[in-house]
Design a protein that fits this description.
The protein is α/β, with parallel strands linked by helices. It folds into two domains: 1-25 and 74-125 and 252-316, no CATH class; 135-233, Ribonuclease H-like superfamily/Ribonuclease H (Nucleotidyltransferase, domain 5, 2-Layer Sandwich), CATH 3.30.420. Helices cover 35% and strands 14% of the residues. The chain has ten helices and eight strands. The protein has helices spanning 11-17, 21-32, 79-90, 98-105, 110-123, 186-196, 230-247, 256-267, 275-286, 294-297, and strands spanning 47-49, 55-57, 63-64, 135-143, 159-167, 173-181, 202-205, 220-223. A five-stranded mixed sheet has the order 6-5-4-7-8, with helices on both faces. A three-stranded antiparallel sheet has the order 1-2-3, with no helix packed on it. Strand 5 and strand 6 (173-181) form a beta hairpin. The protein starts with 10 loop residues before the first helix and ends in a 19-residue tail after the last helix. 32% of the residues are buried.
Length: 316
Amino acid sequence: MNIFNDYPETLLELEEQFAKESDCLEYLSKIRWPDGFVCPRCNSSESWMNNRGLYVCKACDLQTSITSGTIFHQTRKPLRLWLNAMWHISNQKYGANALGLQRTLGLGSYNTAWQWLHKLRRAMVRPNRENLSGTVEVDETFIGGSKSGKRGRGAEGKAIIAVAVEDKGKAGIGRIRLKYIDDASGDSLNAFLKEVVSENSTIRTDRWNGYNGVEKAGYSRVIEESHGMIHVHLVISLLKRWLLGTYQGAVRPSHLPYYLDEFTFRFNRRTSKSRGKLFYRLVQQALFVDPAPVSTLRNGSIDLQSEGENKANHKI
């Protein structure tokens, strides 16, 4: 079976394909181990199944399940519910929020919906994804409400987001990368570039001196006047509009990276006409990222009040 072509295209197909929990387990198994079981510890393909439904590696005796070490690790909820959540998220054109997910799935707990969304946003970043290449426009933007005091790149009380956008010439905008950074210094910006852009690419920037070390980092640099940075400025505009329209701007810095991951996932797949393929990609990536315990979802020194925790004022 070509698993890439094995995904539902409608809600009815989803319900038929995953009518039973065993259907879900079989589907996840084919995606995680398309050529058969592979031990996550020693990579052996020899195993047997014990009476608890766990794979036991013949080489190292590791006991593991299809969902061990994935986003679904130790979940107590049915996998059918998880797949329905992923279908809902994939089919929201402008982004999903916790209240909408809670209502769609009939979850009794808002916190469960909130946690699932953040777990699945982590899965939207594919491990070992390819870096941007070619000509890449880079700039920074600021997320946060109006505050008095210093403005511009040294503004206080706002989150700084580094934005990188592939310029594909006549084809327009290619892929994008976003990252919440500490400041707009050369150290922060060069670290961002090394993380998301392939060496020997051409970096197009404005005249900000934070980019003065770009050549030493292995790139060519082209300096452009700010009004000429049309691709990166368009992405920044769309990002801010998306945060405001979908989440009412109620996104605190401690969890901003999750929202940036979601925006990137959606933007880089904006030309896809198949909601089913987006669903498949999310399921696939959820099987290849590490578990996200609840304790890691509420980190940071700033409490999050986002995507509807102020429920009375949140749009669905």
